[in-house]
Each structure stands twice: as C-alpha cells, then as structure tokens.
Amino acid sequence: MMNMATESDINVDKFIILANEMANAAGEVIAPLFRSNIEFSDKGDKDGRLSLVTEADKNAEKVMRDLISNRFPEHGIVGEEFGSVRKDAEFVWFLDPIDGTNSFLAGLPTWGTLIGLQKNGRPILGIMNQPIFEERFIGSQYGSFLGEKLIKTRECKKLENANLSITSLKMMATNNQLSAFNKIEQRVYNTRVGGDCYNYALLAAGCIDLVIEGELSPWDIQAHIPIIRSAGGIITDWKGNENFSEGLVVAAGDKRIHQEALNYLSKV
Q1: Among 3.40.630.30, 3.20.20.70, 3.40.50.720, 3.40.190.80, what is the CATH number of 159-265?
Q2: What is the pLDDT of residues 200-234, one digit of tens each?
Q3: Distances from the Cα of 107 to the Cαs of 30, 36, 37, 102, 104, in angstroms?
C-alpha cells in the first residue's frame, strides 16, 4: 500500500522549492495561451474518442522536465505528453501540464497543472497549480495549503449530506460502473458534473465531500494524494486499495462517507 511518507528523515524542502519553480515555469508557458484560440490535435490514445493536446501542454511539460533533469538528473519522470524515464528510481515525478485540456480549450478555468512526487512508490508531495486564479494547492508532510493558508477537509457523516463531484459521466466505462455511481448519486444531496482537478483540490479545502472518477492515469492521480491526505481526507481506488492500477478513484473528506461509497463501488 502506498501510504504517504511522513518520516522525519525525508527532507522534502528542496523538492518543494523545485516543485514551486516547476509550477511557476509551467504557468508562464500556459497562462498567455488561455482563451487564445490555440490549435489542438488528437493524441489518439482514448480508444477512438478524442484525446486533445496543445502546444501549451507539450511546452509546459518540457520546461518542467528540464528543471528536474538539471537539478536531479537521477530522478524518474512520468509525464502525460512525453512518457516515462527512470520509473524505478528512488524519486519519481508525475507531471500533467494541463489536467483538463478540454476545459482549457473551452475557456473554462477548472484546469490545472499537476505535479506529484513519490519516494520508493510512496507519495510525499503534490501540487495543483491554477495560474489564472493564482491559486496553488500543495500537500506534504507539513500539511496541505492553499497559498499560505492551511486547509482541511470537512466533516460529513453520511452520504445524504454529501456534495458529490465527477468531471464527466463518460468516465464510467461500463454499465456496472455507471450503475454503482448512480446508486450513490441517488443518495447524496447534490451532484456536480465538471471540475477536473479542481474537484480534488476543493475537497481538500473542505468545499466538496466526495469525488468519484474513472479512466484516470497515474499523472492524473498522484499529485492529489498528498494534498487530500495531509488535509485529513482519504483517497483510494474503488476496492479501497491504494495502487490505482485500474484508474478508478474515490476521494472523500470524511472516512465515513468513503466507506459508504465503497459499499457500492467495491462490488463492481
């Protein structure tokens, strides 16, 4: 299981400095291109469905990779646009330059840059950066922060009181997955569709109670794990495991509604 490392012998300070530099550099590339009618292409990696990429995605990931390679050339990198190097390294970075490219192209500001770091397979640092709003969520052994403000998840004892979010219902790839999701949706008091990576950040900040999604890749998930856990929340796959190998994610601010959701999701 990939528990977030909090051991005192892990000095994350130098990695936090680098991650902030990476977020700044990526934001400088991306922000001027937002709502600019930028051209896009189809990566063709979604089984016949459009999977869009722009020069903003590619150039932002490149500047982040360059910063890692210059500072820590022994570190591994797993990125959405340029693949993986040194995946078996002690430290591995997970990069998604624009999580929510569809929203980015639609002029919606719910996208963000995701930066995650693992040590020996354990998440130790995560950033979600939104350069238009100038909002940066960061989680580590020091806690979770929005800017300089410490953030915490909120209490939610039962599904009937929960605010549920999902980016798209198309993330439910099978009828069984959609059926399980619908059973939960019928119990919560409110469901919002859309939001991309902001759903997870706002869960950590105590604004959302539950996020359920599927068809996610490692770079979509890893940055969120330290942010949510350090804020007091819980994030697992639909079986309650922490390897996320199938790209199925359920995140909750309160372990009680997480368990309620698992009662439905774990049967899929």
Answers
A1: 3.40.190.80
A2: 999 999 999 999 999 999 999 999 999 999 999 99
A3: 13, 9, 9, 9, 5
